[in-house]
Design brief:
22-stranded antiparallel beta barrel, 5-stranded mixed beta sheet, about 5% helix, mainly beta, globular, 10 helices
């Protein structure tokens, strides 16, 4: 055996050993066509393409990797996936990142909804116990994009004097979808390590459009999109029983003796008012005549009117939203240079009236070959966004979600539309039923949250060819934003009785500068070497100036000068700097065997001085087996790959020293509540990955599989402290989190001929998250997040996950029976317990497309199995009797219904001295503790109202937690490409028209609005907890594209 074959076989054996024992998962699509190198190639010469039958099988698909470096996909030792720009704009989602859901195995897009729909992209589970530390890094044309959020409030207020959560958008929500050429998803640490600390959770590489592919001369393209959207889903509201409580029973001698009745206010008939409650445990709608609200009198009507439900009173608050987008682009190419200039305008009216935004984006991208050795590339983008109103995503008495929860079935929305009482405009709201229940139209048109934002992104790079072995690249990019956001709260607001105004000015920027020296050479023995060494300097700055006044002198005038007192001013300034050096080496032997080695060292200003420097390496291997050994001719590609990598992560500024902050009083400072730590270390993730890519039948069938294991230690967290220390929490390194998972992508083209083509892609992924250990300084229960006034928590324990939901549960005996206490209601446990896990067991998607001549049809289904969410909205709707679950016991034939005509039931009523009333009482299912270790069936009668209030109480996390498994019809699209012969004698080169739909169907048992929606608490997305959310939307639309 000669030396060459020994090298090949040793290298192959080493690569196979690295992946042996692993389960295999998905990596990037090699493409519809594959290439095969000729085995008879001569030494030291480049391989030539060969053809099988009438189709070229192409193996050297080029993808964009870390630092924007283009690589042949077959050389990569890690998983990556590509999504085209056409896939992003196919159904024009509100936020471009939402189009990635279901397209990439192991990728999950998290959003709280709303007109701007800010998102967080997670790859391969939660690597950090820090709720804010799991988002992927967004990189545009090789330059990292910062994505700060500026949310002023929390998700839960419950009538308190607190600001609600408002989504004003994040840093990448304004990236123009029409400017995206492609997106490369780098999942593992080996793929993303060269981007440093922020890439610990993966990288989303966005490549924007340029004039590079344009034909010589000038070209113009235009696209038009018109999208309509409506509220996708509502809870199952009940419209059979109206406003009232169990005690609203007519007294003896009244017209409604022994029956439930309704009375708006107290009347002359001696009946007490029933209109002050938000509960719907009142009289059944059965055509009775009751004295109700009269909008003309703004009080009790003079005549009794039919008792009826307004069955659309929730959905009628919403409208059909509308978004129109026009985009025009000018391209030019003269062979030595190219450019693309685009202008895009979008105007969006969301599904709630007076909410939405207008956005204008102008982009220029250019490239010019200055000389034989020097090439300059530049890109600049400016975006202006004007938000009319972004509704609060919170539970408080001045939020729309609060109104939707408490609105009773007998409320007519028309009664609220005048907004203000006659003669008291801008002073007293029309709130006929409760001072806690806001007027929805005042919220929509007066209690607004407008914002204006200017964004600028620019980068310039110079590539200089020193000689045939060395290249030098210099690149610098800047992202800067200036945003002004406001909160308007009118008079007679329950939280702010005399009004409130807040104005925030935010300025932030991030500058990234890189230098990269590259070496490349090919040797006669078939060895190709590429090596690079470089450095990066990153500087970021964030400046928030906030001023607010509580109390307005003149109602309806929102300015700081109109405050009854001097403005309360706060400032937040954050500065951060990271200096980095890195290297990489790529070795390829005869285009069959590949090895990559990288290393990076960061110096971060946010870490303690002695731990400021941290180094992390990576190595990856891949082998094209079908080029090394003889396989059947129908095997076009069999590549095995393996990688190992480490990547470090730092934290937010100012955790290492005793910094003070400004107080509410001029000229004074306050000590922070978080104890600084001068000794904590950077987080460090270690990742192993193995997999294979398999293509057969001329690329018509492909399978990619990847198994990965990631372990992150030295988690940087704020642990709770005893308040007697003077601090409520402190910064510590706390334990280790692991993620292991499997990703599979299966592709097939069952039909492909001149007129027909049918493509299918299925993805499947699973991830097992585990907390391996906690710090010795932390409690055995590490609180990762506490919500809804502490009633539900995300708690980390050794052996648990980062998505474990904890809270109170129903108290049960050894047989699992619910124990009923002395009041006749379910008892609860004395301490909180583990309830459920928010993380899914697995996720999957199926995409299919069919082309017939100039027609094409595409469809995507995706879903998740497993994972649960606590719903605060469900708690409140059940407590108030507003959804169909609470009809159990009120209607004959339901399990809790007590038939007062049954002698045994009637005997129980008499024995407990309760007047029997149909559909008002129940016996709580469960057993009573006899005190001697035995139990007997519960026989105590209680009102249904009290039962539901206790069973679904806010602290009963168990009964308000539900599965978020779902199956969605995510996208449907039909396109028609105008035939070339129709355009032959025109100035039009290409034209197409299409119709599309998004989120058209959702199959789920989740009882609230959307199983995918999470809460937004401050700047943190909180999977597993739903508070104050609004309906998401389904959309449909039409688009038209033309090239001149």
């Amino acid at each position: 055996m000669d030396k060459k074959h020994r090298i090949e076989q040793c290298f192959l054996a080493f690569a196979l050993c690295c992946v042996s024992g692993s389960m295999y998962g998905q990596t990037t699509a090699i493409g519809d066509k594959l290439t095969q190198k000729n085995d008879s190639e001569s030494k030291g010469k480049k391989a030539s393409k060969s053809k099988f039958n009438d189709e070229a099988i192409e193996l050297n698909n080029v993808v964009v990797t870390a630092l924007g470096i283009k690589r042949e996909e077959k050389s990569l030792g890690y998983a990556t996936q590509t999504v085209s720009g056409d896939d992003i704009t196919a159904t024009m989602p509100t936020n471009w990142s939402q189009a990635l859901q279901g397209q990439v195995a192991g990728l999950n897009v998290i959003s709280a909804g709303g007109p701007l729909s800010s998102t967080q992209i997670n790859l391969r589970g939660n690597v950090s116990m820090n709720m804010d530390g799991n988002g992927a890094l967004i990189v545009v044309d090789g330059v990292p994009l910062s994505s700060p959020m500026n949310n002023p409030g929390g998700s839960y207020g419950a009538g308190g004097n607190s600001e609600g959560s408002v989504d004003f958008g994040n840093g990448f929500s304004d990236l123009n979808p029409d400017d995206i050429e492609s997106i490369q998803v780098l999942k593992g640490a080996s793929a993303s390590a060269l981007y440093g600390a922020r890439a610990a959770n993966g990288v989303i590489m966005v490549t924007t459009k340029s004039g590079k592919k344009a034909k010589k001369g000038l070209g113009v393209s235009y696209s038009f999109n018109n999208t309509w959207e409506s509220a996708a889903h509502f809870p199952d509201y009940q419209y059979e029983f109206g406003q009232g409580v169990a005690k609203n029973i007519g007294p003896k001698g009244s017209a409604w003796e022994g029956q439930q009745y309704y009375s708006y206010g107290k009347g002359d008939d001696g009946l007490a008012s029933t209109s002050g409650t938000s509960s719907a445990f009142g009289a059944k709608f059965d055509g009775q005549l009751f004295y109700q609200y009269d909008p003309e009198k703004e009080g009790r009507s003079d005549e009794a009117t039919p008792w009826r439900a307004y069955k659309n009173n929730h959905s009628d608050l919403f409208q059909t939203g509308h978004t129109m987008t026009n985009s025009i682009a000018l391209t030019g190419n003269n062979g030595l240079g190219n450019m693309r200039l685009s202008l895009t305008h979008s105007k969006s009216e969301w599904i709630l009236p007076n909410s939405g935004y207008e956005r204008l984006t102008a982009t220029f991208a250019g490239s010019q070959q200055i000389s034989k050795k020097l090439k300059i590339n530049a890109r600049v983008s400016y975006t202006y966004r004007d938000v009319v109103n972004s509704p609060q995503l919170t539970y408080n008495s001045n939020s729309l979600s609060y109104f939707l929860i408490f609105m009773n079935p007998n409320f007519n929305l028309d009664w609220f539309k005048p907004m203000w009482k006659n003669g008291k405009e801008n002073i007293q709201q029309i709130r006929p039923f409760s001072s806690y229940l806001p007027n929805p139209y005042v919220l929509l048109y007066e209690a607004t949250n407008p914002a204006k934002k200017h964004s600028f992104n620019g980068n310039i790079s110079a590539n200089y060819t020193i000689n045939r072995f060395f290249d030098l690249q210099l690149r610098s990019g800047i992202q800067t934003t200036a945003q002004q956001q406001e909160q308007h709260r009118p008079w007679d607001d329950k939280v702010y009785p005399t009004g409130f105004f807040k104005k925030q000015n935010i300025f932030d920027y991030e500058v990234n500068s890189d230098v990269l020296l590259s070496y490349h050479n090919s040797f006669d023995n078939g060895l190709n070497v590429n090596g690079s060494i470089g450095g990066n300097i990153m500087q970021s700055y964030y400046d928030l100036l906030s001023a607010s006044v509580t109390g307005l002198n003149t109602p309806g005038v929102y300015s700081l000068a109109n405050g009854v007192s001097n403005p309360l001013v706060n400032t937040t300034i954050r500065k951060k700097r990271v200096n980095s050096l890195y290297f990489m080496a790529n070795l390829a032997y005869k285009e069959k065997l590949f090895m990559d080695i990288t290393g990076r060292n960061d110096w971060s200003s946010t870490l303690p001085r002695k731990n400021r420097s941290f180094f992390y390496p990576s190595v990856s291997l891949s082998a094209v087996v079908n080029s090394l050994v003889k396989l059947p001719t129908w095997v076009n590609l069999l590549k095995v790959r393996a990688s190992w990598a480490q990547v470090g992560n730092d934290t937010n500024p100012y955790k290492t020293s005793p910094y003070y902050t400004t107080s509410d009083f001029a000229g004074s400072l306050v000590k922070p509540s978080t104890l600084y730590n001068a000794d904590f270390k950077p987080e460090m993730s270690t990742n192993w990955e193995g997999g294979f890519d398999f293509r057969v039948l001329n690329g018509r069938l492909g399978l990619d599989m990847t198994y990965y294991y990631n372990r992150t230690k030295n988690q940087i967290l704020n642990a709770p402290f005893d308040p007697t220390t003077g601090y409520t929490k402190g910064t510590i390194n706390s334990g280790c989190v692991s993620n292991r998972g499997l990703e599979i992508v299966l592709r097939g083209t069952p039909v492909k001929n001149r007129d027909w083509q049918w493509d299918m892609t299925a993805t499947w992924s699973t991830n097992k998250n585990k907390i391996e250990s906690l710090s010795d300084f932390a409690d055995e229960r590490q609180i990762l997040g506490s919500y809804v006034s502490g009633n539900v928590s995300i708690i980390g324990t050794k052996g648990g996950t980062t998505g474990d939901i904890w809270g109170y549960k129903l108290k049960r005996n050894a047989q699992g029976e619910v124990i009923i206490d002395g009041t006749g209601l379910p008892a609860r446990t004395s301490e909180i317990e583990y309830v459920a896990c928010a993380l899914p067991d697995w996720e999957g998607a199926f995409n299919t497309s069919v082309r017939y001549k100039n027609w094409s049809f595409a469809m995507q289904w995706d879903g998740k199995v497993g994972g649960k969410t606590y719903s605060q909205s469900h708690h409140k709707m059940c407590e108030q009797g507003h959804i169909k679950e609470t009809l159990n016991g009120r209607k004959p034939g339901t399990s809790l219904y007590l038939d007062i005509n049954d002698p045994d039931v009637l005997a129980l009523f008499h024995a407990q001295k309760i007047t029997p009333v149909e559909g008002v009482y129940c016996i709580a299912p469960g057993v009573v503790d006899n005190g001697d270790g035995t139990y007997s069936p519960n026989q105590k009668i209680v009102t249904l109202e009290s039962y539901y209030k206790e069973y679904y109480r806010i602290g009963n996390v168990e009964t308000n937690t539900f599965s978020t498994s779902y199956l969605k019809l995510r996208e449907v699209r039909l396109d028609y490409q105008l035939p070339k012969k129709w355009l032959k004698n025109t100035f039009i080169a290409n034209a197409s028209i299409g119709v599309y739909g998004r989120n058209l169907l959702c199959i789920t048992n989740y009882p609230m609005f959307d199983p995918e929606t999470t809460s937004l608490d401050g700047n943190t997305f909180v999977p597993g907890v739903e508070v104050g959310t609004l309906p998401t939307s389904r959309s449909w639309g039409i688009n038209f594209k033309v090239d001149f």
